[in-house]
Structures are given as C-alpha cells and as structure tokens.
Design a protein that fits this description.
Nitrilase/N-carbamoyl-D-aminoacid amidohydrolase, 12 strands, globular, N-acyltransferase activity, alpha/beta, about 600 residues, 6-stranded mixed sheet, EC 2.3.1.269, 2 domains, about 10% strand
Length: about 600
C-alpha cells in the first residue's frame, strides 16, 4: 500500500516541478524549529520574530517570481485582445494574444489552477480597458465588477485548456474550447454578455468572410485556431531546434496539425472572399431602393439627456425637415423609408398628441414612412412599477402609427435591473436603471412594402436576433441605437458588430444612432457611408433588397453547437486519457473495500465473542 501511495504521489508531481508550495515552506520551517540542540552546546539566541508584512512579502515573492514571465504574458495577451477591437482596431493583435496565452497554458509548470488564474488575469486585462464606457451609466464599481465577471470565462478556458493540452491535436481542441467559453458568456448570467467575442474584432480582417458561412462563432474559432496554431508551430520548432543535431531528423510530426489548421483557415478565406465581394459589389437582379438614416443628436452627452426628451425629438424632426428640403431641391434622392434612432422619441407618441403631431409633420415633409424609436408604456405599467417597452413604430403619413417591433432582448443593469432590491444596496447608480420589459414579435416590420428586420441597439450583438429577422423575410436590417449615454469607443465597437451581421446574412445594414456612429453597410461588410460622432446629420443611400439565405443564416447555430460539443467532448476525453476518472473510481473502490474489510472484522469479532 505504501509503495502504491508513493508511486501515485510521484506521478502527480511533475506538473508542478520547480515550484515550491506553501505547505513545503511551512514544513521546512517546522523541521528547523524542532531540530534539537546538541548536548552541552549553548542554546541559540531566540530569533527576532519577522514582521507580518515581511512574511507576506516573502510569500508573495516566492509565489510570483517563478511565474513572473507567465504573468506578464497573460497580461499582454489581454491587452492585445483589447487592442484588436475598436477604437484601436488592430485585428492581427487577436492572433498574437491567443498565441501568448497558448504558450502560458502549455507550459509544463502551469497547473489547472494556474490555467484558471492566468486566464482570469488575461480576461481582466482585456475587459477593463474594453468597456470603461459602462461606468458612465452605472458608475465605476459595476464596470469593474462586470469586467471581473466576464474575466471568468477566459479563466474557464484556461482551466479546460490545461486539461486537454496532452491530447493529440490539442490546437484544434483549444480553439473549440474558446468557442465554448464564448458561448457560455453569451448565455449566462442574465441572458449573457457577448460583448468581446473575438470574432467581432475582425471587421477589417480577411477572416470577416467566414461570417458568411458560420457566423461570429466560426470567425472566433478561426481566430483562435490561427493564434493557437502559430503558437504550437513555434513551440514545436523551438523544441526541435534545441535537440542534438545528431538526433534531429526532419521536422517533428507534431507540427502537422497546427500547420494544416492554419493552412485550412487561409484556404477557406481565399475561396470565400471572391463570392462575398461579388455579393457586395451588386451583381445580380436584386431590386434597389433608397433608405435614409437620421442622426438628430442630443443637447449634450450623459444620462441627463433623458430629461430633455422633447429637445431630442425636436432635433430629429428638424434634421428630417432638412433632408426633405434637400430632396425637394434635387440635392438628395427621395427615400422610400427613413430610419430614426432608438429613443428618438422618449415621449410616448401613442398617448402624447404633441409628440404625435411633431412626428406626423416630419412624415408629411419627407413623404415617406419613418421608423420611430420610442418609449411606450407596457401593459403592466403602474406608478410603483413603471414598466415600459423600447419600441420601433412604423409611422405612415396615411395611417399614422402602424406596425411595431418591441425590443425583445433588453439590457440588464441598464434598461432593467435584476435583483433591484439587492443591487440598490451596493450602488446608488442602481436607481438609474430602467423598468423595460422584453417585447414579442418576429423581428420584422413593413414600411413602403419592404420587410425590414429590426435589431434595436443591444440586440445586434446577439446572434439569434438578426437571424430571426432574416428567416422571417427581412430584405435589409435596421439597427436603431442610442449611444448618447456612452462614448465614441462604444459606438465604434457596435459598428463592428453591425458589419459582421451584414456579411453573416448577406444584407445591407442601416445603423441610425442618436449621436452616431450612423452608417450604411454593404453585404460584404464595407461601409458605404457614415456620420461622425456627436453631430446632427443624415444619410441617404441606395441599397439592394436581398432575399437569399447564407449558410450562416441556415446553419449558424448548428455550426456553433458542433464546435461547443467538440470542446466539451475533448475535456471528457482528456479526463479519461489522463486517468482522472480511473483514479476516482479506483479511490472509491478502495474506500468500499476498506469499509467492507472493517465490517467483516467487526462481524468476526462479534462471532468470536458469541462463541
């Protein structure tokens, strides 16, 4: 039994070679303290007790110094991930980030707990500088708390990556696990927070075309596969080069999987790019129409703009009147439909006659229906629970308000506050959260005879929203958004999401923001026209109405499900491969056998007593 115990301990130790644990340090101190003084020798002077801060500093130094390089690499990986997103937009940084993190997680001294910790550190370095605009809405504490929560998902990736790193073909499993972690953060908690999915960083990258075939999850998988594959190639080549030249025969076989993986991604990109560009160039017989987006602007940035609801509505009416003058003068084409932003009328135009008259005047002037972003009372409204719907209303000159898209995916901690009584105790900003409730519908409204898919602001980041609209017949996508609470960085990030959606579903996308950035985006992700941030403006562009369905629209959830399943299966396979299950079952069998022997001994003893 002792030999088995020693052998099991020796087998479990290599993962932490070269790292002294806290328990070992304590044992060494205990041995030194208990060593007897030789007879006749003078007892040593009692040592002065080391200050508590010095002991803590010593322990930190022992813990951090051996890991300093891996800690620095994890921080750098997180910062590089952030740099790959707007407003920086250096998309190759995402590959370097995942390559660095791969090197950390495949190091022999990185344990499972270490993988979790390094992943968490990278997640913090990624999210804290990525989403500081949240603090303008809810304050600095919720911003940092959300960053820490989202950092848990790269941490889970790090833990699982350490588990599967010994499997054959591990670079592929690493990429699948990255998709698994992004699926988790897009699902939990409170409906998920997909902001920061690495596929969204590739709006200017050649890998953008992959969204046409598998949506954002496939782009994320490709980015991870390239980054991990490049790291695996470098690691294997360095190890091969360090071998003695007498035993160095050709390239190591371990480079085959990462090499083929990277080559396959590049091949699919090369084959898919001409088709996506062909679609964006306007080939085909798709009918055309003219669509306008109005950016009325707000009096000033910040939450205070909600107290100036009439001024915001007036701004959008005036900018629409200006567009109407340009149309009558022949300097702008007549639009078939006009898109106003989310919250362009925070005054409920269904019950407020002044607001309704203002909108009707704008509709009459432009001689086209307007999609008005409005806030209306929900059926369950009471003064104590002022429930509201964030809606887009089709306002027609002949019939007035018509079809509506009530926002179905509302933003937690902004549009509504889960566990309001609890979070109110943590931050005074809690009472600023709204009372919005999710709406219903199929994501499509009709204006001027055109089926228009609507994904209002926050909804554009969720794969299911735009997909539902297109499957229900939308011929182009409208993204009315309100960025007045945030800043230009947030607006630039949201614009990249819209570009991915355009390629994913082969549709023109029209983004209309209160303060910007408003844009018209082609089916190839190209920005046809755009506004600057924080200025009154309008866009008036010709687009094509499309009806074809992409592979991503048809099969995107299936592709994501397969990648997620592959990642989960790799973890189970690695646990079996590493003997974790076998050891667990063996331990249980040993405990059961010991219990049975103990019971038998007691029974024998009782029998002897009876005899």
């Amino acid at each position: 039994m002792d030999e088995r115990r020693h052998r099991h301990r020796d087998e479990a130790e290599p993962e932490a070679v070269g790292e002294e644990t806290d328990a070992e340090a304590v044992d060494d101190e205990a041995v030194d303290a208990e060593t007897p003084t030789p007879d006749g020798a003078d007892a040593p002077e009692p040592a002065t007790r080391e200050p508590a801060w010095s002991r803590v500093a010593t322990r930190l130094r022992r813990a951090l110094v051996p890991r300093a390089l891996r800690l620095a690499a994890s921080l750098a990986a997180g910062v590089l991930l952030c740099v790959s997103f707007p407003p920086f937009g250096w998309w190759p940084a995402a590959f370097l980030a995942l390559a660095l993190l791969t090197w950390v997680l495949t190091d022999a001294s990185t344990t499972k707990a270490g993988g979790f910790g390094y992943g968490f550190l990278a997640g913090l370095a990624f999210y804290v500088p990525l989403i500081p605009w949240i603090s303008g809405l809810v304050g600095p504490f919720p911003w940092l708390a959300l960053s820490a929560l989202e950092a848990l998902f790269p941490a889970v990736f790090g833990l699982l990556a350490v588990i599967v790193r010994r499997l054959p073909g591990w670079p592929v499993w690493f990429a699948c696990l990255w998709v698994l972690a992004e699926w988790l953060k897009s699902t939990i908690p409170f409906g998920g927070f997909p902001w920061g999915a690495v596929g969204f960083s590739q709006d200017d990258s050649p890998l953008l075309v992959l969204a046409h075939y598998g949506g954002v999850p496939l782009v994320s998988f490709a980015v991870a596969l390239v980054g991990v594959g490049l790291a695996a190639l470098v690691i294997e080549l360095v190890q091969w080069w360090r071998r003695d030249h007498h035993v160095r025969h050709g390239l190591p076989p371990a480079v085959a999987v990462p090499g083929v993986s990277v080559a396959l991604v590049l091949l699919v990109v090369a084959l898919g790019t001409p088709y996506v560009r062909h679609s964006g160039a306007g080939a085909g017989e798709d009918p055309t129409t003219t669509v306008a987006a109005v950016q009325g602007n707000v009096p000033r940035l910040g939450l205070e703009f909600n107290a100036q609801r009439r001024a915001v509505l007036d701004n959008h009416v005036q900018e629409t009147m200006h567009l109407a003058e340009e149309v009558r003068a022949g300097r702008a084409p007549q639009p078939a439909v006009v898109i106003w932003p989310e919250n362009s009328s925070d005054i409920d135009p269904i019950v407020n006659h002044d607001a309704a008259d203002e909108i009707a005047a704008a509709v009459d002037a432009i001689r086209a229906p307007i999609l008005v972003g409005a806030v209306v009372s929900a059926p369950g409204y009471t003064p104590e629970d002022p429930q509201a719907l964030n809606t887009v209303i089709v306002w027609d000159g002949a019939t007035g308000p018509g079809e509506r898209h009530d926002k179905k995916i509302v933003q937690p901690f902004g549009e509504y506050l889960p566990w309001r009584g609890f979070f109110r105790l943590l931050s005074s900003f809690a009472d600023r959260a709204g009372y919005f409730v999710p709406g219903h519908g199929d994501g499509v409204v009709h204006a001027a005879g055109i089926p228009i898919g609507v994904t209002t602001c926050w909804e554009v980041i969720f794969d299911r929203a735009a997909r539902e609209s297109v499957l229900n017949g939308a011929q182009f996508l409208a993204v009315p958004t309100n960025n007045a609470t945030f800043d230009a960085s947030m607006s630039a990030q949201q614009l990249s999401f819209a570009r991915l959606r355009a390629v994913e579903h082969d549709r023109f996308v029209v983004v209309a923001g209160t303060t910007g950035i408003s844009a018209v985006i082609g089916p190839d992700g190209r920005i046809v026209d755009r506004t600057a941030f924080f200025e009154p403006a309008y866009l008036d562009a010709q687009i094509r109405l499309k009806t074809s369905l992409t592979p991503a629209t048809r099969w995107g959830p299936v592709a994501q499900g397969l990648l997620v399943f592959a990642g989960a299966a790799a973890v189970v396979g690695a646990m079996l491969h590493n003997g974790a299950f076998a050891e667990l079952f063996a331990r249980r069998r040993r405990k059961a056998a010991a219990a049975e022997e103990s019971t038998t001994a007691v029974d024998d003893h009782q029998d002897e007593g009876v005899t």
